[in-house]
Specification:
The protein is an alpha/beta fold. The protein has two domains: about 60 residues, Alpha-Beta Plaits (2-Layer Sandwich); about 250 residues, TIM Barrel (Alpha-Beta Barrel), CATH 3.20.20.70. The radius of gyration is 21 Å and the shape is elongated. Helix 2 runs parallel beside helix 3 and helix 9 packs parallel to helix 10. Bound molecules: phosphoenolpyruvate (PEP) and manganese (II) ion. Phosphoenolpyruvate binds next to loops.
Length: about 325
C-alpha cells in the first residue's frame, strides 16, 4: 500500500498517517517526491485496508502496490533516482563510465591504469581488493593494502572508486575506503550482506546474480532500501546460459524492463558477460543504445600478466575508443 499525500499536505497530516500505520504494527516510510510526499507501508504480511486512510485530511489516495517489491518500485516513486558520488551523477540523462582492472595488483598497476581511464574520460575507477575466486588457489586480492591503493587513486586522480565487499566481517573497512560498495553476482542473495548494505553510508552497486530473475534481483535491492539505504545502482553482468561463445549471456532486454519497473539507475558490465575482450566494445555500444545509465568495464595495461580476468580486460587504448563510441551513441539518442 502506498499513501499519496496532497501537494499541500502539512507535516502534521503526514505524521498522522505515519502514526496510524505504526499503530497497526507496520513500518511507515515517507518518500519525498517532486511536489508531494508519498508514504510506503512496509512489514505488512497481508493487504492493508485503504479505508484506514481514504478521507483523512491531507490524503489524496491509497494505492495497493501490486509488486512484491515496494521501495524499489516505480509505483512507489515515479521519478528516477539520481545518485551523486563526489562530482559524478549516476542516473537518467547521465552516462557514467567506470573502468579499471578486475583486481588491484600493485600500486604501480593501479596508478598506471587509473591514469589511462581518466585520460579516456572515465568517471569512476574500479578494482577489487577482496576477490571472489572460483579456485582457492588463485589470487584472492590484496585486501586492506588494495583498499589503501584505491584511496591513493582517488586522491591522485580525483576519481571516485568502486570496490567489492565479500562479507560482513570486512564491510566496515570497505565502506571506509570505497565511494561505491559493490556486491557481486555470487553474493546477490547473501541476505546478511544485503542487510548490512542497508546501513551503509555509501551507495551500493548490486550486480545481478548469475541466474537471478528480475524479481529476485529487485527483491535483493529491496533489502538494501528497506534497511535504510536509498542509493542502489543495479548492474547487469550477464546470466549463465548454455552458450559457449561467451562467458555469460548479456541480458540487454532486462535494461528497459528494469527501467519500467524501478526508479533505480541501471548500468551494464559487458566484461564479465563477454569473458573475451573482442566482444566488449560492441556490447558496450548496444548497452548504451538500449538505455543503460552507464558501463563498468575491465581495463588492464598488461592483460597478459593480469592476476584475474586478463582475457576480458581491454587495453587502455581500446577503453578510449569505447568511451568515444558510447558517447556518440548517447548523444545521438539525446538529440533524437
Ligand atoms: C567483478 O566485478 O570483478 C566481479 C567479480 O564481477 P561479478 O560479481 O559480476 O562476477
Ligand atoms: Mn573480474
Amino acid at each position: 500500500m502506498l499513501i499519496v499525500m496532497d501537494k499541500k499536505a502539512t507535516a502534521e497530516e503526514v505524521q498522522r498517517v505515519v502514526d496510524i500505520i505504526e499503530s497497526k504494527g507496520f513500518t511507515a516510510r515517507p518518500i519525498p517526491g517532486g511536489d508531494r510526499v508519498s508514504i510506503g507501508i512496509l512489514n505488512n504480511e497481508g493487504p492493508v485496508d485503504p479505508a484506514l486512510f481514504i478521507g483523512l485530511s491531507g490524503v489524496k489516495d491509497a494505492i495497493p502496490v501490486t509488486r512484491p517489491y515496494k521501495l524499489v518500485s516505480r509505483e512507489t516513486k515515479p521519478n528516477d533516482t539520481l545518485i551523486e558520488v563526489g562530482n559524478v551523477i549516476i542516473g537518467n540523462g547521465h552516462l557514467t563510465l567506470i573502468g579499471g582492472p578486475c583486481a588491484i595488483e600493485s600500486e604501480a598497476q593501479a596508478m598506471t591504469i587509473a591514469e589511462r581511464v581518466k585520460e579516456a574520460g572515465g568517471h569512476i575507477f574500479r578494482g577489487g581488493a577482496y576477490k571472489p575466486r572460483t579456485s582457492p588457489y588463485t589470487f584472492q586480492g590484496m585486501g586492506l593494502a588494495g583498499l589503501k591503493i584505491l584511496a591513493k587513486v582517488r586522491d591522485t586522480f580525483d576519481m571516485p572508486v568502486v570496490t567489492e565487499v565479500m562479507d560482513t566481517e570486512t564491510f566496515d573497512r570497505v565502506e571506509e575506503y570505497a565511494d561505491i560498495v559493490q556486491i557481486g553476482t555470487r553474493n546477490m542473495q547473501n541476505f546478511s550482506l544485503l542487510k548490512r548494505a542497508g546501513q551503509c553510508r555509501r551507495p551500493i552497486m548490486l550486480k545481478r546474480g548469475m541466474s537471478a530473475t528480475l524479481d529476485e534481483w529487485l527483491m535483493a535491492a529491496e533489502y538494501i532500501m528497506a534497511g535504510g539505504n536509498p542509493n542502489v545502482i543495479l548492474c547487469e553482468r550477464g546470466v549463465r546460459t548454455f552458450v559457449r561463445h561467451s562467458r555469460n549471456t548479456l541480458d540487454l532486454s532486462v535494461v528497459p524492463v528494469v527501467q519500467k519497473e524501478s526508479h533505480l539507475p541501471i548500468i551494464v558490465d559487458p566484461s564479465h558477460a563477454a569473458g573475451k575482450r573482442d566482444q566488449v566494445i560492441p556490447l558496450s555500444r548496444a548497452s548504451v543504445a538500449v538505455g543503460a545509465h552507464g558501463l563498468m568495464v575491465e581495463v588492464h595495461h598488461e592483460p597478459q600478466n593480469a592476476l584475474s580476468d586478463g582475457a576480458q580486460s581491454l587495453y587502455p587504448e581500446q577503453f578510449t575508443r569505447l568511451c568515444r563510441d558510447v558517447r556518440r551513441v548517447h548523444d545521438m539518442l539525446k538529440d533524437g
